[in-house]
Amino acid sequence: MIRFGLISFAHMHADSYAWVLRQIEEDGGEARLVAAFDDNFERLELKSRQFKIENVFQDCNQLLSRADLDAVIISSENARHEEHVLAAIKAGKHIICEKPITVSNQSIERLQSAFSQSKQRIFFQTAFPMRYDATVAEAKRTLDAGTLGAIKAISATNHGTYPGGWFADPLQSGGGAVMDHTVHVADLIRFFTNDEFASVRAFRGDNLHPNISVEDNALLYARLKRSNIPVSIDCSWSRMQGWPIWGDVKLELVCEQGVLKIDCFNPHLDLVSDGRFSWHGMSEDLNKKMILGFCRAVSESCEPTASFSDGAAAAAVAFAAYKSLENGETASVCAIEQ
After folding, report:
1. In a domain, 239, yes or no
2. Which site among 86, 264, 292, 322 is 20 to 30 Å from 127 CA-CA?
3. N-to-C CA span, the chain
C-alpha cells in the first residue's frame, strides 16, 4: 500500500487524482489518499469535503512530516513545482509531479542536483498518462517491430480548450499553450523514436483569446538529434467553449513503408438527447493506470514509466520554443543529463 498526500488543488487534474486514489482504496487496491495540502483555505475546505480527506494542511511541511506518508502528487501551479519537489525530496517522499515538471532549464538543474544529493532513492513519475494509453502502446509495438521501416517525418497536435485562471498568468504558469501542451506530444515523440530533440523553431499566431497575455495559438517545427527527423507540433488552446471534448492528442508518423496515424481519444460515443449533441469518451482512465503503475514501480524498486529525465527532456522542448519566440530564430534544446 502506497500512502499518498496531495500537494495543492490548483491544477485542474488534482480532482481526478484525488478521485482515482479514493476509487483505488475503495476497490482494495494499492494506493490510498491520507492527506492534502493547499494554501487556499476555501479550496482546501471544499475539496476535503468533496473527497473525504481527513488530514488537511495549509503548511506543506506539516503534510510532508507525516510518518504515514510514502508519496505525494504535486498539482500546484507550474512555477511552484520546484519548491514542492525540493521539499518532497528533503522529506524523503516519492513523487508524481504534474507537467511541466518546472518552468526553466535552471530549475531543472537545481532539481537534478537535489536528487543526486539525496541519501534516499526517490522515485519520480512525470504525469504523462498518455504513456499508458492502449493506442500508444500498440503504436510503440508496431514501430519497434520495424514493419513500417524508418520514421521519416512526424506531425503532432495537442489541442485543448483555454483552461483560464492562473494559466493566463506567466508568473504562475511559465507561459501559455506552448508550456501547457508541448510536453505531452514531445514525450510521445521521444518514446516512439528513442531520440532526443535537437532544435526548435516556434511561431506564435494571433491569439484566439485576445484578452490574455500568454500565447494560445502556436506552432513548433523541430528536428530530432540522431535521426534528423523533422517534427511539427501544434499545441494551441484552439478548442472553443462548447466543444464536445476538451481537445486531442494526435500523431502522424510518415515511415518508409507506410503512415501510422494515432488518435488517442477517438474511441467515443456520439449521443443526441433532447436536441443536444454530446461526445462521451470510451477510453480507459489513464490517470488511474498511471498511479497504479507508479505504485508498482515503487513497490518493485524500478524506474517509473515516465521518469524525471523524461519530464525534463519534454519541458526543455518548450523552453527552447520560448527562446525561439523571443529572438525569432531556431533554438537549441538543452541536453538533459540522463
Report:
1. yes
2. 322
3. 29
